[in-house]
Structures are given as structure tokens and as C-alpha cells.
User: Which sequence fits this backbone?
DNA sequence: TTAAGTGCAAAAGCTTTGCGGGTAG
DNA sequence: CTACCCGCAAAGCTTTTGCACTTAA
């Protein structure tokens, strides 16, 4: 079990380049706003909500509106540049990682911690053809209590 | 790969009884509203939002308020009578099943389909002690496109 | 040039909260 | 009885939308 740390500068650059290429190939304008929002999601190792992204200093100082942040995050998901993360809370959360990895999900505070584990990655995906479901990827969620919440349970 | 169908009447009855017992042991009033909301979540094989539960005929005819539905669902989760389901959308969704099972998650329409699969159940949970994370259970999410959305992709 | 994107502000949708009356134990 | 719960209505968040202006290609 290893906790995942952030992307390298090189990887981030490659991801932004890939999105730029996607845009030009699909006739989608590669705007300043899209570049900044993508870069910021890649910078975060957390799993931010739209509003968290909106509040980031670089997003604020570029005067990007809240509506654009919401729209852009969805565009980035459609383009495959970022993903949406599954979680038990009531807000949409995004993830700069698009590769297979897994999550520790705290059932008390909704925090999400990325983990990587070869045994989990090697999971063989069952055949879902009978249900006509087309599986693109998978995630394993280990659900429980994070360090902070465990301590609060001990001394409530 | 088998799709899970609903709980039997017997199982539902047992689950309601277990909650009644939990209430009496913990000095929590077992109100009509709590019983009805629990029964209705157990009846559904879907993964309803609070508002979906609120809209059910039996909930409406019992004149249970929206606020009570929201509060009650959270109470039931705290009591371990139901669970919250992880998903990529922007609403909290609940699940009448508390046992280990897995989900097909549609990335386009956010629908969730329960599945059961022995290979997935047998997944060995990695050691998370180094992160001080206390794993209670796990879920495997197979992410992709459901039947309906696949068809819409073909003919957009 | 021009189709698409953006900012703004308002609307819409989801969830929580305060409070007076009601109810389970 | 009495603490806790419920319904109501209002407030507080989160997200989407319509429209006039701006911009990438």
C-alpha cells in the first residue's frame, strides 16, 4: 500500500499538451481559462469541488468566473483530460488523475486519499456483456475512518 | 457477474426489527417517520436521493416533511441501518444494502447498478495501518456506459 | 470573420437550520 | 413528564442558464 504523491512537472506539462492537441483536433478553442483550470486541477493532489477550484489564487487572479469554472471542469471531463471522482458526499468532485488508482474514503468527513496497490490494479474485471454495460475502467474504494476522524471517535 | 435483485420480505422485516432494537438500546425514539423511510429505502433496489425518497407515495401520504426525510436518512446511516453510496454525481445517494457488494456506475447518466461477483468479494484488502486509516469495508466500482447510454452514443 | 466561450447576474436545485408544537418512552 | 423529534418556512449552499460581449482559430 503506497500513498500516491502528485504528478511531476513533466507529467503535468505533457497532460496540458495532450489537451491542447485534443482541442485543435476537435475544433475546440484552447482558451486561457481552460488551460489554467486544467493546470490547477493537475497541481492539486486532492479531489477538489468546483468551488474549491474557483477559490484558488491563480484562478481568482485571472478573473475566471464561477460559471466558467463549472463549465470548464465538465468540458475537461468530456475531453478525458480529468475525471470525476466517486464519493459519498453531495458535491461533484474532480480528479487530475486519469489512470487506474484507488481511494481511501472517509465515511465521516468525506476526505479521499489516493492509493496505489498492485494487487488492486490487477483485479480482473468481470464480464458485464450480459447487462450490456461497457466497462471503461474501475476503482476500488476502501471505506472507513481517516486518521483525524479516528482520533475524534476516541475523544468525542 | 450477476445482477442483484431486491431484498426478500423476510430480510426487510429483519432489518427493520434490527433498527428498532438499535433504537431501544440507544435511547433513540423509533418513530413512524423513521420506520417508513427505512422501509422505503429497503424496498427500492435503486440508489435514491433524499428527494426521491421524499417523493414516494407512501412517504407523501404519511405527510412526512422533506426536512424529516433528509434528517432521517442521515440518522439511519449513523445507525448503520442503510449506507451512503459513492458515485460521481452531485447529490447524496443512499443504499438499502449494508453488505459488501459492487456497482456498475454509468459515467454519462450517473445510474448505479448493483452487482455481485465472488472474485470481487474475495479481494484482499491491503494493509493501511501505515496511513492510520481504519478500513471498514470496500466497494468496487466498474465505471463505463450503461445500455441506454451506449445506444445514445451510437445514434446521437 | 465567426462559431464558440466567457462574465455577469439571476434562477434553479439540493440541503440544512431555527423554532414552536407534538410524541415516544 | 420530558427529552427528543417533527413540520414548516426560511436560509444557505451548489450548480445551471440566458444573454450580451469577447476571443481563438
Assistant:
Amino acid at each position: 500500500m503506497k500513498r500516491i504523491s502528485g504528478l511531476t512537472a513533466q507529467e503535468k506539462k505533457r497532460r496540458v499538451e495532450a489537451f491542447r492537441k485534443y482541442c485543435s483536433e476537435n475544433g475546440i478553442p484552447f482558451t486561457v481559462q481552460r488551460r489554467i483550470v486544467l493546470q490547477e486541477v493537475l497541481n492539486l493532489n486532492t479531489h477538489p469541488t468546483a468551488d474549491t477550484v474557483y477559490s484558488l489564487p491563480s484562478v481568482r487572479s485571472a478573473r475566471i468566473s464561477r460559471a466558467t469554472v463549472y463549465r470548464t471542469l465538465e468540458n475537461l471531463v468530456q475531453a478525458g483530460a480529468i475525471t470525476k471522482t466517486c464519493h459519498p458526499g453531495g458535491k461533484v468532485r474532480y480528479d487530475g488523475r486519469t489512470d487506474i488508482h484507488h481511494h481511501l474514503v472517509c465515511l465521516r468527513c468525506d476526505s479521499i486519499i489516493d492509493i496505489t496497490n498492485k494487487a488492486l490494479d490487477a483485479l480482473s474485471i468481470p464480464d458485464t456483456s450480459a447487462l450490456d454495460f461497457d466497462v471503461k475502467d474501475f476503482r476500488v474504494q476502501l471505506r472507513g475512518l481517516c486518521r483525524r476522524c479516528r482520533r475524534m471517535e476516541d475523544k468525542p
The beta strands of chain B are 2-3, 83-85, 93-95, 102-106, 112-116, 134-145. The first strand of chain B starts at residue 2 and ends at 3.
